[in-house]
Design a protein that fits this description.
A two-stranded antiparallel sheet has the order 1-2. The longest helix has about 35 residues. The chain has one domain: MetI-like (MetI-like fold), CATH 1.10.3720. The chain starts with a helix and ends with a helix. By secondary structure, the chain is an all-alpha fold. Helix content is about 75%, strand content about 0%. It contains 13 helices and two strands.
């Protein structure tokens, strides 16, 4: 009886995790396999299944589709770089300088998650439109004579992307910085290192885990984002998400949409591997600099 009780108690943690594993298999792995399988379908003009083919994958390597993937890569990389450039100093300030205001700043950082995503976009409409807050402010300050055309431009798209994804970069970097021993930074400065050297050779390497997490949280959804470019950019460019939605929802084009999904996901995975190789080399370079 004691052996049975001991054996059951040892397996309880695994048993608790079984529902999560089942949920993940049913709503992630099985649909993923169905997408891969359906990408091989060949449909007639009437939508009748005719067999398996690689033609859908061959069609996705057309110049038009490759350009769409490049648009999404550019959007994701630009958003990630800008978010990282803004998030790193902000996370540092919250972790090391905010002191009593730390919880308040984190509260302000979390507020956007409390409202609907579309409300954020429509709020920025009132800020960026020709008669909006920004143009009114610039005209009242005498900086411009006539309203600027900001809405439905690449600038508006990038501004909204950075605004929306910035918290996803700040929070993991802040979490990693919060665990850094402050004495390490003080020791670096006391031993004669400049502030930039301390950031590059101490703070950055010790924050790499948070930076990696932040890149994952920003880069992956930014690559598939199409609502922000469509609403803020005026739908002037096609991106991966918009093409997939049109194919999947269209008549008899679902297999092509599935093939395009597999192809673009493969590009996403390869680009992520390249980014993490670069980050690893940077970490090794800075760590070598410490030694």
């Amino acid at each position: 009886m004691n052996f049975f009780t001991k054996h059951v108690s040892r397996e309880i943690p695994f048993a608790i995790g079984i529902p999560a594993l089942v949920w993940q298999a049913v709503f992630f792995y099985i649909p993923l396999l169905l997408i891969i399988f359906s990408s091989l379908w060949s449909l007639s003009t009437e939508g009748i299944f005719q067999g398996l083919t690689l033609k859908n994958f061959i069609n996705t390597w057309d110049y038009i589709y490759l350009k769409i993937v490049c648009n999404s890569l550019y959007l994701a990389v630009s958003t990630t770089i800008l978010c990282l450039g803004l998030a790193f100093p902000l996370a540092y300030f919250i972790a090391f300088r905010a002191k009593k205001q730390k919880n308040l700043l984190l509260f302000f950082l979390m507020i956007p998650f409390w409202t609907n995503f579309l409300l954020h976009i429509y709020a920025w409409f009132f800020v960026l439109e020709k008669q909006g807050f920004l143009n009114t402010l610039l005209i009242s300050l005498g900086m411009i004579d006539s309203p600027l055309h900001i809405l439905n431009t690449p600038f508006a798209t990038m501004l909204m992307m950075v605004y929306y994804f910035l918290p996803f970069m700040v929070l993991p970097i802040y979490s990693s910085m919060e665990n850094i021993d402050r004495n390490l930074l003080e020791a670096s400065l006391d031993l004669g290192a400049g502030w930039l050297q301390t950031v590059g050779k101490v703070l950055f390497p010790l924050s790499l885990s948070g930076i990696r997490s932040g890149i994952l949280l920003v880069y992956i959804p930014a690559f598939g984002e199409f609502v922000i470019p469509e609403l803020m950019g005026g739908d002037k460019q096609y991106f991966v998400g918009s093409v997939i939605s049109q194919f999947v929802l269209g008549n008899h084009t679902a297999p092509l949409g599935a093939a395009f999904t597999v192809m673009s996901t493969s590009v996403l995975v390869l680009s992520l591997l390249a980014i993490f190789v670069v980050l690893r080399k940077l970490g090794e370079f800075f760590t070598r600099g410490i030694a």
